[in-house]
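Shipment paperwork, digital attachment
Item: protein structure file
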Amino acid sequence: MARLADYFVVVGYDLDNRVEGEGQGRILQRFPEKDWEDSPFPQGIELFCQPSGWQLVPERQPASFFVAVLTDINSERHYCACFTFWEGLDSPQLKKVDAGDADEADEEPAVVQHSKLFAPKSLVVVSRLDYTEAFRNCLGLIYTVHVDGLSTPLETVIGNLLTCVIPVAGGSQIDESPVCSLDKVPQSPACDWLLACLQRTITLGAGDRQVIQTPINDALPVSGSSVAQLFRQLGIVNVLYLFCAALTEHKILFLSSSYQRLTDACRGLLAIMFPLKYSFTYVPILPGKLLEVLSTPTPFIIGVNSFFRSETQELLDVIIADLDGGTVTIPECVHISLLPEPLLQQTQTALSMVLDPELEFSDQAFPPQSMNPSALKIQDKEIRAVFLWLFARLFQGYRWCLHIIRIHPEPVIRFHKAAFLGQRSLTEDDFLMKVLDGMAFAGFVSERGPPYRATDLFDDLVANHVERIRQEEACPHKVMNHVKELAEQLFKNENPYPAVAMHKVQRPSETSQSTDQSRTPFPVLDDVAVQLFIDHAVAKLKSSPPVVKAELKSMVPSGPPLGDIVDRNGNVMANSARRLEVVRNCITYIFDNKMLEAKKLMPAVLRALKGRTARVCLTQELNQHVLQNRAVLDDQQFDYIVRMMNCTLQDCSHMDEHGIAATLLPLVTAFCRKLGAGITQFAYSCVQEHMVWTTMQFWEAMFYSDVQNHIKALYMETDDGNQVSNSQDQQDGSSNRREISALELAAEQNRLWPTLSKEMQMERVQKEESTVFSQAIHYANRMSYLLLPLDTSKNRLLRSSGLGDVESVSNSYVTNSIAGSMAESYDTESGFEDAESSDVANSVVRFINRFVDKVCNESGVTNEHLKALHTMIPDIVQMHIETLDAVHRESKRLPPIQKPKLLRPTLLPGEELVMDGMRVHLIPDGRDEATGQMGGPPLLPAEGAIFLTTYRLIFKGTPSDALVGEQIVTRSFPIASLTKEKRISVTLTMDQFVQEGLQLRSCTFQLMKIAFDEEVASDLAESFRKHLHKLRFPQHVQGTFAFTVGQSGKLVLEPKTKDKNQSLKTLSKNLVKNAKRTISRQYVGRKKEVPATWENRSNFQSELDEDEISVSEEVDQSALTLSSTIRSSDRQTMSNVVERACCRDYQRLGLGTLSNSLTRSKNEPFRISTANRMYTVCRSYPGLLIIPQNIPDSTIHRICRCYRQNRFPVVCWRHSRTKAVLLRSAGLHAKGVVSFFKSPNAPTTVPSQADSTSLEQEKYLQAIISSMPSYSESTGRNTLSGFTSTHMNTSESSDKLRQPKIGDLMKQVLGNKEDVPGTFSRGALGQKAKVISLSQPKVSGKARNSPRGKWGSIRGSGRLSAYNPDIGTRLAGKESPQPNGGPNDPLFLRQQKAYLYIIGDKAQLKGGKQDSFQQWEVIPIEVCDVRQVKNSFKKLMKACVPSSQTTEPNMSFLRLLEDSEWMTLLHRVLQVSVLVVELLDTGSSVMVSLEDGWDVTTQVVSLVQLLSDPYYRTFDGFRLLVEKEWLSFGHRFSHRGAQTLGSQSSGFTPVFLQFLDCVHQIHLQFPMEFEFSQYYLKFLAYHYMSNRFRTFLLDSDYDRIELGVLYEEKSDRRNPQVCKSVWDYIDRLNKKAPVFYNYMYSPEDEEVLRPYTFISNLKVWDFYLEETLSDGPPYDWELRSRQESLAEETAEKADTGAPKSQRHIVWPCYDNLSKVMPDAITKLLQDLQNLEAELGQTSEKWKDTWDKIKTTQRTETKLESKPSFSSSLLMSSNLSHQRRSQGVCLQDSRVGSSIKLGLDCEASATSTPVAGRPSTSTLYSQFQSTESENRSFEGILYKRGALLKPWKPRWFVLDKTKHELRYYDSRQDKDCKGVIELSDVESVTVGTPTMGAPKNVEEKAFFDLKTSKRMYNLCAQESSNAQLWMDSIQSSLSDA
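Attachment content:
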């Protein structure tokens, strides 16, 4: 029984005491005045009566009622029901207010003066019971008695209220009327005993009557309809958010303008949390004065009036629920973990079916009739039922994870969280983790853990309905039925009996409420009268017998065990039976000592052990091999078992999710090996590296589960199982077979406990206590096993998680038999030699002590025992350390485990080792090929060593996978190509610990991820990094391998840089002095010391700055003349210069010659100028330059200042036919052209400012134009329609055909949008977006009148570049419609053509002024910035060689390739080049004037020459082209390649590689036009980055001369092994073998190539993607030859007895395809050489052999051409192109492969009919030489058809090669109509004419051919012919 009300309080406005102008409340009276002992009076009630503050108001407010909740110090909740009404103040009181503080009234002075004020007064009932309605009625009655002046005294009513007693729950056994009621409550006959128990009819003696229903079970919360209201106010999703937030301990704040709603909402939220109880701050109504409570750091649920909304705005971590607005606001910094799926979805569905049942049927045509939701009170219980169902699913099986540690005297229970989460595979679930860690769940365990107690609805649900819930969860309607059943139970609990006695409560009469006359204030009550009532009731209670509520205790059912739940859920990580089989087999092999078998299975086992079932299987299998807690193994068995244990443990987190560590714990102390006399090493010493052993929670859980097992065993023995099993059988008949769980056992013991005698009880308590104690000792031992390292002398200062930081020597990889191989390095490296072993011992002792204290206190071990333990632990540890020392000593004597032998790499001549091999593991990167994921063997990971040489970084080793262990894996790259190095940490699959590693990326498209082996000391790895860095970025270019080759490696590591730089500085000082004298005001382009100043400057401003600076400052440092450095005379220098590539090429092109006197020949338009021979004009240009004949050298000195880096325009190539010239220069300086360029489309007159430089420049350009024959001959015929010259030699028609193509081209290049200057990715470059339609394939022939190649036409409309509309209209052929309305198309032909086009940078648009005759014109294009090339290349490397595997769709290869924009850049360069080619071909000269003239300019002019001039497509020509355009014209190889320390910051920018890629694209499209193969390009690309040769070092000829390397290549013959020039090397190699030669080379005279340039036509270069792991990159040939000779030696040594298979498996990323599968020609040439060598003949060079074969074949072709050749086919003009396209089909492997001989270009037989054939029917016919060989005899024969079919003439061909007789419809027919196999022919006989035979044919012309299948009747035109045929066939048969 409990009091309905503890206190009654009257609280009023305090007129005397006001603080800071705010009113206060004060308690006027309280009853009883003395506190109850069991329930002290709560403080601060006056604050809660007026939460918004006490204020006087001018108008009377209606009475209000709400319930506030206060929590006392014992966490008891007090419900304060406040009834507030307003009373008028009389005048003396008013005066008091005015005098005290008029501030409050000042706000409305007018009102205060003449109106009355009203003050609030509250009647408060304080109770521990939550009966809102009853309190509302009682207080309302008291108010009514007061207002209406009823006869009942107030004291009586209040006295009755305070003495009302009602049952707490389930009622009492006696029919107890209120002691204090004045008139007995009439009992109707229907009010039986139950009614009396469950409801109290109470009266306060004022003619009232009300019924209070008490719940059947007070454990279940009472919610009324508050839950349903909450969902109505906020909605399903919002409430679920609040629900999850409350469970995961977030702060929740409710806002509403209604106090009662705040209380209801809080009550509702708590109700749905059942069975968890909220244990943090809970204040449904918070007074405004206490708002600072909201900034408390602890979680809370608080309600605040909306009036204070603004104060809640700055709360950053509080979730605010606005009940009035229906919103929930979650701050950004708060993350609410939601319910796990699918629970969340199912809960939402169930809730929406309760709240909105119509939703489900809203789309149905005939919805059910009645679909209304239940009444609010029922709906409330249905919602709560959904949450009960949810908790039953969340906590199902929780009782199986309770560990009972003690049963007597009190049950002590612990919850094993890890096991619960692990077995339900929810370890990753954030929500459940937080709930289980929370306070609410801790309360849940302590309340519901005990096994013997009263049970409730939830216990029943979670134990007995799990099966039902699981079956129904997928079907919402079944769930709803279950929910409705639960709701019914909840409703019955709250409303146990329908109210029979009607409520009868007076309300104040209408008149008393409405009249506003001066009411009497609430009177002061007589406390004596009230106290009398209370005393009377207390006395009566004391005399009456005590009420005893019989608690029905029972055993709490546990429900089905967790294991079943999970297995049926199928959530467990499934492992196929095959994997488990592998694990079992491997263990069997190990114990049967079949080690080889076990080794092969090992990798598969380690992979399988990632799954949980395989781990469990492993522990079970190992358990079977343990006998009497011991299993002695030999060394190898021990190693394998330990390795498997380590793999099993590696993923165990500190939670040990699946109990794997727990099951392994007994095993690690069981498996051991004998090391020596009496010394045994156990497995635990090798598995200590795992986090799980240092985790306190793990040890606690293990300890508790062991204690539980022992205590269970204890009671199973004492009871002999009798009573227990009996009672168990009665309870659950089905489970008599099942083993009794510990909880059931404990419940039984608890039930029996009161019946036992004191002695028995004491005995049991002692037994349990000693069980716990003995386990604690056992665990102290176990922990010392796993925490003390094998070598305790090493300071293992324990790990961070529990023990500090451990640097262990015992390694988890294999076992400590490895320690031998590591001992030395660790002794020297550890740095803790003097550390005493006590450090380790102390930390372990401390850890074990902490553990023991915790578990013993929780499980009630006595203090004596605890002290004994503390003294024991140091001894245990010390003893263990001593045994370990012996074990460690012995284990060091073990032979170290055989690691794979380190393989030595083969080195180049002159290459030396800098650091010898360090043992490493090569880890797979993002490329799938080598890991075996795409089929093929898993070559990676591999184990081997990394070698650092002066030239390369080499990994050489063998795959870790035993199945491919005999292969050798090599991965290497030149050090100079290293672009990025970063540290990584790697976990290897084979060994389970993290190692430090490096990731090294190279621009030769190679990536090495290496993990250092544990035997490599960390400082060794560090020194490796430093050496690598030194070699990668030497101080000076002379430190690179190309210079140091052959010198001692030591020189490389410590270069004597100091004095070298000194000499350079002094040199430069002298030079600068000379320069100042000789050069007055000249900009020279390069700082010697600081290469970084050569960055591209692209913006206008810096151009100006640069020019000014160049005059004043830079000259000092960089105006170096060569005179001081070159000792030799000018003449020698000149003769050397003449030998250079430039000069040879100028002479070939007829651009001028150098006679001895250096005089010019006057009739030549150009001359070779020697102005720059001392590199004074331009440092980065060659010494000899081609300039117009009539320009004196002095002009050059002036002109060069206008251009950046002084790179003024010079001629570099001349078109042999049109005589147009190609010029190159840098972009113009800003200063030189300020006045130069006006609005481009306005016809400009003479420049206003007569700037001499600008005039000089014009003269220069004019001189170039004048030198063109087309200009001198045109004599005013400027229009293109008439513009033909003898040189162009083209007919009118072809010209018309050709010219519009340039317009198309211009549109492409300029782009058809208004492009933002300087942007590269959009606009002109954004060609991806355009629709591209290619015209028919290119056609080219010998005849000049046929068009010279077709174009892909781009229908690009839209405006041209906004910069120069004039050019746009002229070049693109776009113009406004003519006034005469003529068509637009031919307008282009009437446009004037410029003689010189200047390709300039759109971003700067600085070029020569348009002259009025428009003889030159600027084409503005966007050039790619060097930075773009650099970034694009980085992205390309990441795309081609990703560092790690990814499954993200936006990280796929093609997506990354597109993002890199590399192909876009290629497209751009090719597009501009093709435009220039076309312009030159139409007779206009072109000047390429972009950026600094050494990057894009070089690319474009080189490609233009390559496309236009077939000479550059030969070996010699290509070499010349690169030497001239790239080397002599000063492409900055050292700077762009970041070859030295100075250029390190600028990064690697592969401009030259981009050029080679463009050449590769052209090569792909025209495979027959190049003498060199694709391999040649790859070779150059590789060595451009490798620094093996000096060719691609340094930035200009000037630098090369200065270092003395320009002319040494020819003279240096001292060391023939070391090639300094890549060209010499290629020549040497090319003479020996056809590695660089393209067998398909068959050029056309004067062929101009016009490749397709769209991205869709470009292919990714396989240089970026291919890899050969067998012997590294295939570009260093000495290595290949050495490797081959080594391989032959080993093959000879190998056992020759066994039969050797000729078959060889070729793996894509492993083998070098050209080596293992050479093409036929290479193979035949090689065989020929070998045979000649065997015969002792001197073998001739391969090239001679090849040329011979070609010429003989050509003559044969001519001789054999019979009339059978179709001459029409031969002469077909289409042929040549089709031949070309056909050639593309032939796979050009690295050395070129094709068996099409006869492809040399002879006019008569350029090719054979086969080449023109559109499709080759069989593979055979693709590989054939001239068809004449295959046509031994041919002609027309009549053939008789099948039955009833006539004779028909057919063209028969007898083919001896294929041994068949084919026939065709006609001679021209390509498709064979039938084939007669000669092998089937049985006889050839003379035949006779039959029906339908041809007339007029003699009889002897008939003959029959009999085959095994049928008879052919044939007929020739005459008998002799027939005889010929028969003889031929007969001879073929006999040949066969």
